[in-house]
Design a protein that fits this description.
alpha/beta; PLP-dependent transferase-like; 513 residues; Aspartate Aminotransferase, domain 1; 3 domains; single chain; four-stranded antiparallel beta sheet
């Protein structure tokens, strides 16, 4: 029976064609097919994750490309799921980065929690869209209530509101979109949504630190202001926004007849995890009448920390906040939120369509979430967070997050103790550690090339996945310690591998010079 269900060519004939086995429904064929599909996929995933010795198989980029190019993408008559999974096992499943491996510590890319994976099954099966009530019904109210739970965690009151998003890029864009339109309306009575950009738009300016996320500039370009509308503020020795330079830049903008309208603080920079002085920045924003947006995509998880939550001081002054759940909340991608202090801010993006969200539906108690989002079709990602909060509990969440912070400090200490290493952020603000291999006997070595090679050699060996970055034009290595299953012993093993690869490359360099 199951074999036939998974082989469409065998269940179709000239007299009658049935498509039931291709869908999940209450009938016997659909239910059996779904159950068997879940079983087969589960077995393959368990097999793929069974080898925890390395986070990556170690294939070169060209090898993977050729394997995918040889993969048959389309079948005229279809095939069984078993046959398909067998075919993609090598080129896809075994060639993926195992983000759950303790030695996969490159990016802000978290191992997903099992409750989140279970929620994904429910989300994909119902395939709801969160734009209109009649597509999402109960899911609409669950997202709404979860937003209500989040708001006070960040110091927002009853008039606040929010929406789930695909992540920090969309959330930062929404913050600056609302900031632009709010400024244009309040200063000139100009309705950007209806009338387009005003003639003074070329004078509008956004301020952020030099370590702010690239999406600030990206958003400025998409908003018709151009990347040059972003004024970059210097950072101090702790990679936080320099308040003196902020005041100086604001004074210069005023002297030149330019119009700052938004000030962006970062709560957890991508490289260093640094947190801008949000309290002081919020006060400056209020003084100058600027929209205050906080990008807490990384650091927003501090709301659950037992010992570091005080680092969020000042975030309650924000007009809007970005927070991602597919980072330190350990949710499957994608899962984020955008919060506003005043729900009326969403009026700048509201649209009504008779076939989707007619205005008078609200009189019947229907809630259409599309009025709060730049997306129309949108997944029920709130379920992942809710199921994780229920099953894991906020106490264990806090324990996991704080463990990674403690591990980052221990890692910084270990790197500092080892000769031949140079660390930048000796006291990590969150759980990112930036350093480079700088051997004492490395005179004449191109250290930028050396560290680039070390990162590449580790990746191609499959021994560890770590990132590289640039600091003042020099190449550095970076650990992003999101995984609470990573131990200090794992870190020591990676550092030893770095030393070995560094020494190998240094020896080869010396022989050739």
């Amino acid at each position: 029976m199951i074999t036939k269900v998974l082989k469409p060519s065998s269940i179709q004939n000239e007299e009658k064609k049935t498509f039931d086995p291709f869908f999940l429904h209450g009938g016997a064929e659909g239910a059996a097919a779904y159950s068997h599909a879940v079983q087969l996929v589960s077995e393959k995933l368990i097999e793929a994750f069974s080898d925890q010795s390395k986070p990556y198989v170690g294939k070169a980029p060209e090898d993977i490309r050729h394997e995918i190019q040889r993969l048959e993408l389309v079948k005229e008559n279809g095939e069984s799921l078993y046959e398909l999974l067998e075919d993609i096992q090598e080129p896809l499943l075994k060639s993926n980065i195992n983000i759950s491996n303790p030695k996969s510590i490159a990016h802000l890319h978290c191992p997903p929690l099992l409750p989140g994976l279970a929620a994904e099954m429910i989300i994909s099966a119902f395939n709801q869209s969160m734009d209109s009530w009649d597509q999402s019904t109960a899911a609409t109210y669950l997202e709404h209530e979860l937003i209500r739970w989040l708001l006070p965690k960040f110091g927002f009151g009853e008039v606040g509101d929010g929406t789930f998003t695909s992540g920090g890029t969309q959330s930062n864009y929404m913050g600056l979109l609302l900031a632009r339109d709010d400024y244009c309306w309040k200063r000139w009575g100009h309705h950007v949504q209806k009338e387009g950009l005003p003639e003074q738009a070329n004078r509008l300016r956004i301020l952020c630190s030099e370590h702010a996320h690239f999406t600030v500039k990206k958003s400025a370009s998409q908003l018709g202001l151009g990347e040059n509308a972003v004024v970059v503020i210097k950072t101090d020795d702790y990679h936080q926004m320099c308040m003196d330079d902020l005041e100086e830049k604001l004074g210069s903008l005023e002297d030149n007849g330019l119009l700052p309208f938004a000030l962006v603080a970062t709560c957890g920079t991508t490289d260093f995890g640094s947190i801008d002085p949000m309290k002081e920045i919020g006060q400056v924003a209020e003084q100058y009448g600027l929209w205050f947006h906080v990008d807490a995509a990384y650091g927003g998880a501090l709301i659950l920390s037992h010992s570091h939550y005080q680092k969020l001081a000042g975030i309650e002054q924000a007009d809007s906040i970005t927070v991602d759940f597919h980072k330190l909340f350990y949710q499957p991608i994608s899962c984020g939120a955008f919060l506003v202090k005043d729900k009326r801010s969403f009026r700048y993006i509201q649209h009504y369509a008779d076939y989707l969200n007619p205005n008078d539906d609200e009189e019947d108690g229907m809630l259409h979430l599309v009025t709060k989002s730049t997306q129309t079709t949108r997944r029920f990602d709130a379920l992942k967070l809710m199921m994780s909060l229920r099953m894991i509990g906020t106490k264990t969440f806090g324990d996991m997050i704080d463990y990674t912070f403690n591990l980052a400090r221990e890692t910084a200490d270990e790197i500092h103790r080892r000769p031949g290493f140079r660390i930048i952020n000796r006291n990590p603000a969150l759980n990112a550690v930036v350093f480079r291999y700088d051997p004492i006997a490395g005179e004449g070595l191109d250290l930028n090339l050396l560290n680039k090679k070390i990162q590449q050699m580790l990746l191609e060996s499959g021994g560890a996945i770590m990132a590289k970055t640039s600091v003042e034009g020099e190449t550095y290595l970076k650990f992003t310690l999101l995984n609470p299953r990573t131990t200090l012993d794992d870190i020591k093993e990676i550092l030893t591998m770095i030393e070995q690869y560094g020494q190998t490359y240094s020896t080869e360099w010396g022989m050739n010079h």
